[in-house]
Amino acid sequence: AKNRGKNQIAECTPGLRSKVEVTVGMMRQLLRAQERNELELFYQPQVCCGTGAVVGLEALIRWRHPEKGMIPPGLFIPVAEQTGLILPIGEWVLRTACERNKAWQDAGLPPVRIGVNLSVRQLQNPGIVDTVKAALRDSGLEPRYLELEITESVVMKGTDTIETINRLKELGVYISIDDFGTEYSSLNYLRSLDVDRIKIAMPFVQGVEESRKDRAITKGIIVLAKTMGLGVIAEGVETRTQLDYVTEHGCDEVQGYYYYKPLPSAEMEELLRQQGLS
Ligand code: C2E
Ligand code: CA
Ligand code: CA
């Protein structure tokens, strides 16, 4: 039976075969990457529209590959999700983000909230509640300084995931919907989930100069969030016009290259330090 399995792989289309090989190869390298401390977090500042102050950060994973250089998450997170490696990697991200943020606070820097991306796969695992609890306890970070970013697609995974999110919420952490408006489940989850804020997906924000539709959608999302008593942040703000548009319509915060790209830990710390002095 073992041999037959082998032959089946050999017989399948070259495209599929190479895809399997690439995934398995990448998985081996990712396993080693974690052991060798090649994974690293960058931090992208989130800026208050009213004051221009940095009020939050999003932790974004990078893989510092010894030969290939810095690999962005888009190239390895999908493999981590397919292979289940996202569970140990995701736990490392959570712990590292909590520890870093607590260390900055302990150093006397202005306290900020830190956002961590959670994959659907992590949320389908009920153990995630204990994982988050342990990361908070071990780091000493207060729950209100941790934000968990989830995507709309989790709600399509059913009531168990919704239950898990509500239990996370009970820990006192902040919950936000990432890439709002880009997935299938529409608005129904806003009724079933108790979230704190919405992150307006990049394509809408970046379309405000060119597209009447994107302007309407962006404004509509801000109004929806505010009417529901939720916070709202615009992602991918790259221009002054985009910043002005969302600010005028009542958006709380922005995140994007107009202000800052994701920064390595040392640069993030320096930025917080400067802000503390001003
Ligand atoms: P995301 O959660 O939507 O993160 C925002 C992405 O947009 C980041 O890309 C960020 O660098 C990029 N970005 C921010 N501002 C701008 C802008 O003004 N213009 C443009 N063009 N891009 C901007 P990045 O770091 O490559 O991350 C891509 C995705 O990978 C993330 O999208 C998230 O879905 C995933 N990801 C990153 N880190 C993690 C992680 O620790 N765990 C999990 N599960 N997923 C992660
Ligand atoms: Ca995110
Ligand atoms: Ca996003």
UniProtKB/TrEMBL annotation:
Residues 23-276 form the EAL domain. The keyword Transmembrane helix applies. The keyword Ligase does not apply. Keywords: Membrane, Transmembrane, Transmembrane helix. This is EAL domain-containing protein. The chain holds residues 352 to 629 of 648 of the full protein.
